[in-house]
Amino acid sequence: MKTAKWILDLAHSDIQFKIRHLLIANVTGHFRLFSGTMYAGKDDFTDANFKLTIDVYSVDTNNEQRDEHLKSADFFNADYYPEMQFVSKAFNHVDGDKYDLKGDLTVKDITKEVTFKVLFGGEARDGFGNMRAGFDISGEINRNDFNIHANDTTEAGGLVLGEEIHLHANIQFIKEED
Fold first, then answer.
1. Which Pfam families match (predicted)?
2. First CA to last CA across the chain, in angstroms?
3. Per-residue pLDDT reduced to its tens digit, 101-138
4. Model confidence pTM above 0.70
5. Which residue has the higher pLDDT, 155 or 101?
6. What does the buried/exposed string (b/e) look like for 136-166 if buried means 16 or more CB atoms within 10 Å of the residue's CB?
7. Domain ranges across the chain
8. Fold of the 4-175 domain
9. b or e along 95-134 (b: 16 or more beta carbons within 10 Å of the residue's beta carbon)?
């Protein structure tokens, strides 16, 4: 069985996050620049290995002032840690099109093992004859596990930001043909 290389198609993929603000509503953001590869030999992708790299400077919450604050040492410290990375360890079939994706997530200089839920969207050939595969990935991380926090209490002592960051990615890969 031959292992195929797949390249992430940025034009047909997105990575977004949500976090509670003042514990009353979500703030949503995106990372606009990222790249990735997947290697797989099996038709069901259970042997797939994923590697995703996110450009921290590409954070976009639709508010330039907030984006600059997120890039600062208070949060992502982008000048010292310009990239986040996910490297998979296992891609396990659960049921139907559902999978668990386990791997190491590195934010700043902290690496933690995380597990994401995946819905495999399937494979299809595009109008140019390229084979594509789509994955809908979701999960949560605790921002404190990755030292993503500033002075985050209100004058009354309440939290400005929730601790859970909800991550969601729609990822489409293009198979590299021999």
1. YceI
2. 14
3. 999 999 999 999 999 999 999 999 999 999 999 999 99
4. yes
5. 101
6. ebebebebeebebeeeeeeeeeeeebbbebb
7. 4-175
8. Lipocalin (2.40.128)
9. eeeebebebebbbbeeeeebebebebeeeeeeeeeeebbb
